[in-house]
C-alpha cells in the first residue's frame, strides 16, 4: 500500500558544492507531508545499495522523481547503479513485475550549459529530451507513467539567488502537477 507522497531520489555525488540541487532539496523539505527526500550518496557513501529497502521505499510512495545533475550526458554513477540493481525483473518489469506500473515518474535535472546548447543547432547537437530518452524508455519498459523532466540550465555560468529561488518554486509547481 502506498501513499500519494512523492519520493524524490537525489543523486548528487558532491552536494556540498551544489547550488541548485541543494536549493531544490531545501525547498522540498518545506513540504514534508508531500515529499520524502532520499539522498543516495548520503545513504550509501560506499555505493553498496540495500535493494530490498530501496524497493520498499518506492512501494511506500506514490510518485517517483529522480533528481540529479547531468554527468557525461547521463546520470551520476550511483543513480545508474541504483537503476540496475533496484529495478529488477519480477519487481519492476517482466511477467510479474508491476511495482512501477502506472506510477508517475519524472526527472529533475541540472545542466551546466545553456538551454540553447541543447538542440540540433546547438553546441552539442542534441536536445535534453534526447539525452534523457533512456530514462523515458526505462519508465515505459516498466509501465510507469513518465511525466517528463524539470531542468535548470546554465549552472556553469553562475546564477543569482533570485534566479535560484524562483526556479526552486517552479520545481515545486512542476511536482505538484505530476
Give the secondary structure arrangement, pairings included.
Blueprint: E1 6-10, H1 20-29, E2 35-39, H2 40-43, H3 51-59, E3 64-69, H4 77-86, E4 104-111, H5 128-131, H6 133-141, E5 145-153, H7 161-176
Parallel strand pairs: 1-2, 1-3, 3-4, 4-5
Q: How many runs of DSSP E, i.e. beta strands? A: 5
Structural class, by secondary structure, is alpha/beta
The outline comes out as globular
Largest sheet, order of strands side by side?
Answer: 2-1-3-4-5
The largest β sheet comes out as: 5 strands, parallel
Unreliable spans are none
Strand percentage, roughly?
A: 15-25%
Instruction: Report the C-alpha radius of gyration, rounded.
Output: 16 Å
Describe this structure in words.
The chain contains 7 helices and 5 strands. The radius of gyration is 16 Å and the shape is globular. The chain has helices at 20-29, 40-43, 51-59, 77-86, 128-131, 133-141, 161-176; strands at residues 6-10, 35-39, 64-69, 104-111, 145-153. It is 35% helix and 19% strand. It has a 5-stranded parallel sheet with strand order 2-1-3-4-5, sandwiched between helices. Helix 1 (20-29) crosses helix 7. With 178 residues, the chain is an alpha/beta fold. It starts with 5 loop residues before the first strand and ends with a helix.
Amino acid at each position: 500500500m502506498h501513499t500519494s507522497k512523492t519520493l524524490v531520489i537525489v543523486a548528487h555525488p558532491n552536494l556540498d558544492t551544489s547550488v541548485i540541487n541543494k536549493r531544490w532539496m531545501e525547498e522540498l523539505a518545506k513540504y514534508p507531508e508531500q515529499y520524502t527526500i532520499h539522498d543516495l550518496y548520503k545513504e550509501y557513501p560506499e555505493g553498496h545499495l540495500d535493494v530490498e529497502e530501496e524497493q520498499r521505499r518506492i512501494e511506500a510512495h506514490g510518485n517517483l522523481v529522480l533528481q540529479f545533475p547531468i554527468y557525461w550526458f547521463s546520470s551520476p554513477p550511483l543513480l545508474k547503479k541504483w537503476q540496475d540493481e533496484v529495478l529488477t525483473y519480477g519487481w519492476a518489469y517482466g511477467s510479474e513485475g508491476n511495482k512501477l506500473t502506472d506510477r508517475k515518474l519524472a526527472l529533475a535535472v541540472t545542466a551546466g550549459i545553456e538551454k540553447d546548447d541543447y538542440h540540433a543547432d546547438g553546441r552539442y547537437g542534441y536536445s535534453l529530451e534526447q539525452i534523457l530518452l533512456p530514462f523515458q524508455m526505462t519508465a515505459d519498459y516498466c509501465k510507469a507513467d513518465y511525466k517528463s523532466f524539470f531542468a535548470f540550465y546554465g549552472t556553469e555560468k553562475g546564477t543569482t539567488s533570485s534566479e535560484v529561488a524562483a526556479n526552486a518554486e517552479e520545481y515545486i509547481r512542476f511536482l505538484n502537477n505530476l
